[in-house]
Write a structure and sequence with these properties.
Layout (H helix, E strand, L loop, with lengths): L1 H27 L4 H7 L5 H12 L3 H7 L4
Helix pairs in contact: 1-3
Length: about 70
């Protein structure tokens, strides 16, 4: 049980790190959201969007828009 819990924490930390990197790419590049998802290790852009929203509280598109980037 402890080993499984530790693995879940590592996976959560990895997703958070990927999302933080994605946030930088969203603000500093003109890459599409799908391209950013792929660059950050997400095979599924829908899963990326859901994960991003869970970490940041808004979707990748809303994040870009809220920071003045369309």
């Amino acid at each position: 049980a402890i080993r499984r819990q530790r693995q879940m924490c590592i996976e959560t930390d990895l997703i958070t790190i990927r999302i933080l990197e994605a946030g930088k790419l969203l603000l500093n590049t003109d890459l599409s959201i799908t391209e950013i998802a792929e660059k950050c290790g997400f095979d599924d852009s829908n899963y990326f969007g859901d994960s991003f929203k869970k970490v940041k509280g808004i979707s990748p598109r809303e994040y870009r828009k809220a920071n003045g980037i369309v």
